[in-house]
Amino acid sequence: MNKNIQTPKDLVRFLEEQRGNTAQTLSEGIVGIVMGSRPVIMTMEESKLTISCEVSHFDGSADPEELLKQSLLLLKQNVAILPYAYAMVPGENDESAHFVLIDSLMVGDLSEEELGSSLDYLRAALVAHDKLFG
């Protein structure tokens, strides 16, 4: 039976019982799993669930032209990895950044099937990313 996911407890139950993941509650409303070798962070707020997975990190020592080149390649890939998109999250200092794959789902009538599909799309997006960037 397909159930709705409305709370972090529902999320953990689904991830462990239906997907076979080991889910870890990191803090209130934040759950982590590992997909391949990458940590996936799921943040549940009142109206949405955000799923993100870091795919690369720049520490500020990267050549600005290389960073621009990588950023443009990531933007071009956005159409190929829907519903996920690449996003750049500021790092610990002004010169560092994290590139993540991100998707948001509305909570309330979020079904297990919807969340399962999103995680399948994330897996496919990670495969596509690894093929492009190695």
Q: Can you walk through the features of this model?
A:
- With 134 residues, the chain is an alpha+beta fold.
- It has a single domain (8-133), classed as Yope Regulator, Chain: A, CATH 3.30.1460.10.
- The protein is built from 3 helices and 6 strands, in the order αββββαββα.
- The chain is globular and about 50 Å long.
- The N and C termini lie far apart (39 Å).
Looking at the structure, what is the overall shape?
globular
Q: Based on the structure given, which CATH architecture is correct?
A: 2-Layer Sandwich
Low-confidence stretches: none
Briefly, what CATH class?
A: Alpha Beta
- The percent of residues in helical segments reads 25-40%
How many domains, as an integer?
1
The largest sheet has its strands arranged as: 1-2-3-4-6-5
Main sheet: strands, sense, barrel: 6 strands, antiparallel
What is the arithmetic mean of pLDDT?
91
Pairing-aware structural class of the strands and helices?
Answer: alpha+beta
Give the C-alpha Rg.
16 Å
Report the end-to-end length measured between terminal Cα atoms.
39 Å
CATH topology: Yope Regulator, Chain: A
Query: What fraction of the residues are assigned to beta strands by DSSP?
Result: 25-35%
Number of strands: 6
Brief description of this entry?
With 134 residues, the chain is α+β, with helices and mostly antiparallel strands.
